[in-house]
């Protein structure tokens, strides 16, 4: 199974419109505020940090470049060709490699695993943006990439984030400027319960090794100057003997 054409086209439209300016995208906060804290949680559970690391849903590659400074081989993958254009322009030194991938497509995930072998996978916020029928195939694809030795390191919005986003979208002036394009392109996060995420992982044959809560920081601010943060859950999963 692969993702729907509507979903693919929505992401292409979003990234074609997005600016190359750092921080212009709602969720594209500085790595020291996002992937940096995530790594501090994930690294103790990586049984083999030397495995290739796949940044799944890499977008414009901000987090990918940070990961490439810390792991020997990093590949940023995304469904959107326009997103990857941003990533390559922002990485003229070629710190990481980038590739278009539909991870919900079984054949594509298997082909990448055949090329790279087992990998560690980092994914932030992608599952909640998926259409319902694509969620389990996506996690199945992650399980394929992880194989026997890798770890899946996921950060997903928690159920409480819906209320925060709804409040932002329903304000008297409408959604904040950086959030407005997300809604305009039909990319508003779907409803995935906190209980559903570990169940997707278990159904894919993975064991949840650790989990916790950590706010997902955005690049947008409230009128009082405070940064908007979205409640989120982090999980580490892999196969166990």
TrEMBL record:
Pfam (any one): Methyltransf_25
Domain named Methyltransferase: residues: 54-146
SUPFAM superfamilies: S-adenosyl-L-methionine-dependent methyltransferases
Name listed for the protein in its UniProt record: Class I SAM-dependent methyltransferase
Keywords for this protein: Methyltransferase, Transferase
Biological processes, Gene Ontology terms: methylation
InterPro entries assigned: Methyltransf_25, SAM-dependent_MTases_sf
Highest taxon of source: Bacteria
Record organism: Streptomyces iakyrus
Gene3D superfamilies, per the entry: Vaccinia Virus protein VP39
GO molecular function, one term: methyltransferase activity
